[in-house]
Every structure is written in structure tokens, then in C-alpha cells.
Design brief:
The structure is a single chain. This protein has helices at about 45-60, 75-85, 100-110, 130-140, 150-170, 185-195, 250-260, 270-280, 310-315, and strands at about 15-20, 30-35, 65-70, 90-95, 110-115, 140-145, 175-180, 200-210, 240-245, 290-295. The chain is of the alpha/beta class and about 325 residues long. It has a 6-stranded mixed β-sheet with strand order 1-2-10-7-8-9. Strands 5-4-3-6 form a 4-stranded parallel β-sheet, with helices on both faces. The structure holds 4'-deoxy-4'-aminopyridoxal-5'-phosphate. The site of 4'-deoxy-4'-aminopyridoxal-5'-phosphate has 16 residues, from helix 6. Belongs to the cysteine synthase/cystathionine beta-synthase family. Its cofactor is pyridoxal 5'-phosphate.
């Protein structure tokens, strides 16, 4: 018989898929690492498992304890999966820009969710950082993983994502592109790939325009899970060789094209990463192999990026509307 002994055994070992149509005119090979194939539907399953293992080992999480975390959804799902298997309670704090779909997923896994306003500073007592700190103090037996500073986040990508990419490309990868949120993915995966390739792999961060990683002021943008208005400890800024940015409009356009042209239904941060990879690949040659990490699925964004009315309300859609004269249907 061939089976996983628990859903946790299904974390990691996600496949690489070559992009064929959206890459027209580009000489380099563009491979995407499809992280929505993790059991919780995102790359965050990897960090959740390693963070909880470490907290159990060092005693900060005891039997019957509660996990409290500010999360835009995916980390919550990963933590909820592992917590559920091991008997912990979960309380998650989400900013109100996070889609209802994502919040309902957390609740479906048995977690409790507290929603806070997006348009306040991190220091504000109502911010999602402040509220989660307060809950972690008030709830007895609470453990706050703090994905923004926990070294086990980047460590999980160093131990799994990086080696998987190196093995699957037989060491031929030349460029690695990933969105930057907490910075854990790019820091851990990037560090491994640079070490194993003796500095040959070029690491490129993808950032929504407006976020500080690409020199913005931290002004709001709509792409979820990426960009920041402060510098997290999980992010080692010496790892990326370059940070590229894309607007919400560019990222969402590519997100929709990935579904229609490549059969990959992905979230907006995946569109961002591919948009930046396509910019980086303009001058590359047929010898180059670019690996782009795609964090999650489009299922959580059906009411937003894949909803024409929502897209039109932000003025994102005209160039994609096939009914309008003068606009080419894609
Ligand atoms: N995309 C999505 C949808 C995410 O939830 C996250 C995590 N915040 C990221 C990208 C960025 O990953 P990281 O936190 O490792 O930088």
C-alpha cells in the first residue's frame, strides 16, 4: 500500500512546471514552483511545521497550548493543519484587506479569527501586530510563532525549498525569483541556492510598487501577502541581488493570464513574482534557467482578481475586456 501516514507528510516536494505561452519572446527557460500543491494550499505549510516542531522542542509550546499569530491567511492554514494534528488551539489576527474566502478557510480548519483595520500604523493599538501581541499576553499557554522574526521560517526554506529546486533543476538554475513578505522564502531559499552554487545563482526579490523593499514609502497596494511597511527580522537583505517591483495592475493582469494561458490558477503574489521574472528575463539567454516560486492558489481570490466587477472598480480591466472594440482578447 502507498499512502501518507498523515496530511503533514504531504508538505513540500512540490513540482516545477515550465511556462510556455506567457513567456513568448523570452529565450530563457522559466520554471515555476507550484506551492499551492502543499496540503494547506501554500508555501506556508513548510514554515508552520518547522516552527511548531522547534517550539515543542524548546518548551515554548506545551500540550494543550494556544497558537496566536498575525497572518494574512496562508500561515494560519499551515499552523492550523499542524496544530489540529497535535491538539493545539489557534487564534489568528488578520487585516481587513484579506479576502473573506481566506478567513473562512481558517475557520473551516477550526481556528478562531480576529479582523483588524489595514489603514493604521503598526504601532496603533488596533493594528494586527498590536492586537496579536495583546492576545499572546492575555491567553494562558499562548505561543506566538511570529513569522516576521522566527528564524525557523527561513530555516524551513533553507532545508526544503532550496534543495528541492537544486535537485529538480540538476543544478542548472541561474536565477531565483520570489515575492517578499516576511522575507522568509527568499532568505532561506536564496541563501541555500547561493551557497550550493558558490554564488552563481542570482536571487531576485519581487515587491509590489509602494512597499519599502523596492524603495517605496509603505503606501497601500492590493496584492496580498507581499511587501511591507517595516523591515522584518526574517528578511536578510544581503541575500537578494536585486529587488524588482510591479504594480497591482501588472501583477493581476499576469495572474489572470497564468490561469487562461498556462492553466495555473494562482494568487496575486504569484502574478507579481512572474511579472518580475518576465522583466528580469528580457535580457537572458537560452542557457538561463529562471525558477519562480508561486506561493498560493487563486481559489482565495475568486471574488477579487478573478471578479471582473472588482477589477473594473479599480480600473484594472479595460485592456483585458474582449468585448470592447480595439482591444485584443487574450
Ligand atoms: N505570497 C503570499 C500569498 C503570502 O501569504 C506570503 C507570506 N506572507 C508571501 C507571498 C511571501 O512569503 P514570505 O513571507 O516568505 O516572504
Amino acid at each position: 500500500m502507498h499512502y501518507a501516514t498523515s496530511v503533514l507528510d504531504l508538505i513540500g516536494n512540490t513540482p516545477l512546471v515550465k511556462l510556455n505561452r506567457i513567456t513568448e519572446g523570452i529565450a530563457a527557460t522559466i520554471l515555476v514552483k507550484v506551492e499551492y500543491l502543499n496540503p494547506g494550499g501554500s508555501a506556508k505549510d513548510r514554515i508552520a511545521e518547522r516552527i511548531i516542531d522547534a517550539a515543542e522542542r524548546n518548551g515554548s509550546l506545551k500540550p494543550g497550548g494556544t497558537i496566536v499569530e498575525p497572518t494574512s491567511g496562508n500561515t494560519g492554514v499551515g499552523l492550523a493543519l499542524v496544530a489540529q494534528q497535535r491538539g493545539y488551539r489557534c487564534v489568528f489576527v488578520c487585516p481587513d484587506k484579506v479576502s473573506d474566502d481566506k478567513i473562512n478557510v481558517l475557520k473551516a480548519y477550526g481556528a478562531e479569527v480576529v479582523v483588524t483595520p489595514t489603514s493604521v500604523t503598526p504601532e496603533d493599538p488596533e493594528s494586527y501586530y498590536s492586537v496579536s501581541d495583546r492576545l499572546a499576553r492575555e491567553i494562558p499557554g499562548a505561543f506566538k510563532p511570529d513569522q516576521y522574526s522566527n528564524p525557523n521560517g527561513p530555516a524551513s526554506h533553507y532545508a526544503t525549498t532550496g534543495p528541492e529546486i537544486w535537485a529538480d533543476t540538476a543544478g542548472r538554475i541561474t536565477h531565483f525569483v520570489a515575492g517578499v513578505g516576511t522575507g522568509g522564502t527568499i532568505t532561506g531559499t536564496g541563501r541555500y541556492l547561493k551557497e550550493v552554487s558558490e554564488g552563481r545563482v542570482r536571487v531576485i526579490g519581487a515587491d509590489p510598487e509602494g512597499s519599502i523593499y523596492s524603495g517605496g514609502s509603505g503606501r497601500p497596494y492590493l496584492t496580498e501577502g507581499v511587501g511591507e511597511d517595516m523591515w522584518p527580522d526574517a528578511y536578510d537583505r544581503t541575500i537578494p541581488d536585486e529587488i524588482l517591483s510591479a504594480t497591482d495592475a501588472e501583477s493581476f493582469d499576469i495572474t489572470r493570464r497564468l490561469a487562461r494561458e498556462e492553466g495555473l490558477l494562482l494568487g496575486g503574489s504569484s502574478g507579481l513574482a512572474v511579472a518580475c521574472a518576465l522583466k528580469a528575463a528580457q535580457n537572458l539567454t537560452a542557457d538561463d534557467v529562471v525558477v519562480v516560486l508561486l506561493p498560493d492558489s487563486g481559489r482565495g481570490y475568486l471574488g477579487k482578481i478573478f471578479n471582473d466587477e472588482w477589477m473594473k472598480s479599480y480600473g484594472f480591466l479595460p485592456s483585458q475586456c474582449p468585448d470592447e472594440p480595439g482591444h485584443e482578447a487574450r
